[in-house]
Request: fold
Amino acid sequence: MKKPDLLPGTLDMLILKTLTRAPLHGYGIAQSIKRSSDDVLTVEEGSLYPALQRLLLQGWVKAEWKMTDTNRRARFYTLTSAGRKQLGLEVSQFEQMIAAISRVLSEPA
Amino acid sequence: MNLFTLFTRKLSILFRRNRFRSELDEEMAFHREQAEKDLVASGMAPEQAQVAASRQLGNTTHLREQSHGIIAFRWETVVQDLSFAMRQLRRNPGFGITATLIVALGIASSVSIFAFVDAALIKPLPYKNPNRLVHLYESISLGPRFHLSYPDYQDWKRENKVFSSLEVYEPFGFMMKTADGLRQTDGARVSAGFFRTLGVNPILGRDFYDGEDDPKAARTVLLSYSTWQRRYGGNSKAMGQAVVLDGDTYTVIGVLPREFSFAPAEPADFWAILKPGTCRSCHGLFGVARLKDGVTFAEAFADIKTIAQNLAKQYPDSNRDQAAYMLPLTEVIVGDIQPILLVLLSGAGLLLLIAGVNVANLLLVRVESRKGEIAMRGALGASARRLVTQFITEGMLLAAVGSAIGILVAQESMRALALLIPKDMMASMPYLQGVGLNGHVLLFACTLALLTGILFALTPIVRFRRAEIGEGLSERGRASSGVTWRRFGANLVVIELATATVLLAGAGLLVKSLYRLLHTDIGIEPDHIATVHVQMPPEKYGKPEQKVALVREVVKKVTALPGVKAVGITQKMPIEDADWTSGFVIIGRPDNGQHKEVAIRFVSAGYWTTLKTRLASGRYSTDNEDASKPDVVLLNQTMARLYFPGEDPVGKQLGFSADAKQRMLIVGVINDIQEGQLDSAPRSAMYLPFYQNPFAGFVVLARTAQDDRGLLRALTSSIASVDRGLAIYNPMTMEQKIHDAPSTYLHRSSAWLVGGFAASALLLGVVGLYGVIAYSVSQRTREIGVRMALGAERASVYRLVLTEAGRLIVIGVVAGLALSVGAAVLIRKMLFGVNAWDAPTLGGVAFILALFALLASFLPARRAASVSPAEALRTE
Reply:
């Protein structure tokens, strides 16, 4: 059985946001999201890497092989300017949606 | 991000695919190591950490596939599936070859028959708006499709309000004058507006102008395209040349288009202008007319019927009881073969159905037998969608290859079938000359291929449930799936058996019809008779005495040939379309206003002995009955029974009409000779002596003790030696004439073709049954082992298997018989002398099918009975 995924489409947004601070490798991105969400959001590897491929294909991130501080070779992903723009777009869409949902939920019973 | 950039990015990754894969692997390895490190750091034991990290990373294959799926083009999975499908098929070539061949068989037969159906029934005729064209006849007591006379045509043309044009044509065999004497050539005579009515324009020269059929205008002729190529070398200088036909000089004025043909008059080399005739009771023409805009067929028919009725009242001597008859031109041209083509198309369709069901069955067996493999692949991470897509690809690959082979075979068989049609039949069906892989046929073939592909793709899906993937690995799963499939597969086999029954019944009925047709009593003995047509040049033989003298000379020469036992002369042979008719009256009996008309023949005394006819009463005519002796006549039985019921007509007298002076004494009654086509009803006919009424054109029949075919050449040359100027043509034996007659030919070819379909269907159905029973036995090996271990005898195992088989056979055959009767009712127009529910045929079919089917089931039954219990219990 697969674990339940994040809300579809939000994974891209979370990854992009994580990369605004600094370039990271795949494992690092997953850990960062887990930490920032206080262990609520667990990104499954099965979704992470395909998502990264998708972001690469769209040109919102770029990747290069670098050495980590423990002298291991790893692939680091960096946010591009197009990616930054996309992030802004997705965040505003997401916030609009959340606001709309909140309005519905706050209706008197 | 536009599509072009996306596309180029994907393309570049495509070329660096290996690097992509290794980089992804390295990334995931790194990920796992980091996870492991973190787990150890948080206190887990190293080995445990390794396992936990791997599990956390999850299914690497699946991950790889997902990533791959993002960056790959969509068709890459298709290519992967295709190569896998081909590998699978290569590993199991028996299945692949069998399935492909069965599909090819079904597609080939359907496509080739459809090509004929398209050429004959779907492609429009080469005229403008052919649906608005009608064919006109005069109907008389003998039948509805008889000729018009010229004055009647003129009146119909003048009086009608429903046709924008009405023209006539007359198929005619011209005697063309050549350097070596007279040569018979095919053609037609037409009125001036004939081609304009059809909407056909000459490609060279001009059409007849209005009024060119005036008696004072010169005689002109149009050439058919092939004649222009053959006789005039395709030279434009042919315009204005003269050609002598039947003693008249005609000037060539134009050439007709290549695609033009007019089936009722074909073959026709020369299309000559028709000059008017004044005899109202001389009927030799057929009419073609175009409906005015907005006028329906029914309205036009009613109008022309009224006109004919008025003429009958106006001219009682010539037109009494003559009515008008009208048919759409398309029906006249293709009407005869329409039922046959539709029957053949249905037969091919049924065969395709069986073929499809058979292959679907094979595919189902394959899915079942690979349940274990499917389960394994599912456990290793293949998504259900991928697995199903794989089966779909395999099915479609089979359909595609089978269809491609089928289409190629169809092309060859189309050519072969066209060659099998005798040349003069082909001439009267000119629309069949273009049969081949044209647009319509290719479209049909591709549609069939697509439908086959869909069928094969859907079949595994139907049996494919996601839950069963897990079940497939367990024993229980396999056993239960076997049962459900057995039921499904069994239903398919019942369909196959029922369809095979229908085809076999159809073939059986058609074969019986053909037999009945060839063995109808035609009133003569057609063996060992050689025949040839002769035409005298009119200039040399103008007087009747000259004609008689020539014919007597010919008879003498032919009788002197070695082996010839008897020689007969007639103006028209039997087993032809009986168009020579004459009115008559019975002397001494009042007319009662009824116009009597019968077929008429002029024969020599030798005719009776040559054909070995049977005399019912009185005597035959004799050879010295010529112009010097009193006129005599013989009747056939049908005429005697119809006009002289309950009495002997011998001794009574006939005349041609009430005022005519000629009196003919009835001297005998003969048993009916089949004057019309083999499948037409008996007609009244009277026979007068040839020497009392000689014609310039006649037929010589010679009975020989030796080979009739070998006599033909001697016959022709001996007649030619009497007078080199005679036109001698169409030599054939009587048996050839019957054998090649259109109705015989059509019955024979349909019997053969449907028989071929039936044989294939029988084979496929029986093989399908064998497959189902054999598979069922293999599924029940364990159960049988248990039974035998508990003491069951081998006989009971036989009974077990054969009962299952028997049940399927009975259901299939009974259903098939019921459907057969329905189908036979649909084809009853093609059956001759056979009922649609003919019990012996249906019984025979059921017996044959049951026999073969039981034989097919016997083999697996024997295998089941020879199972050793110990082995069976061990089998998994």
About this structure: The interface with chain A takes residues 1, 5-6, 9-10, 23-24, 26-28, 30-31, 33-35, 38, 56-59, 62-63, 66-67, 69-71 of chain B (CB under 8 Å). Chain B has a mean pLDDT of 86. The longest helix of chain B spans residues 475-518. Chain B has five domains: 3-73, 75-126+338-473, 142-320, 496-518+736-876, 538-724.
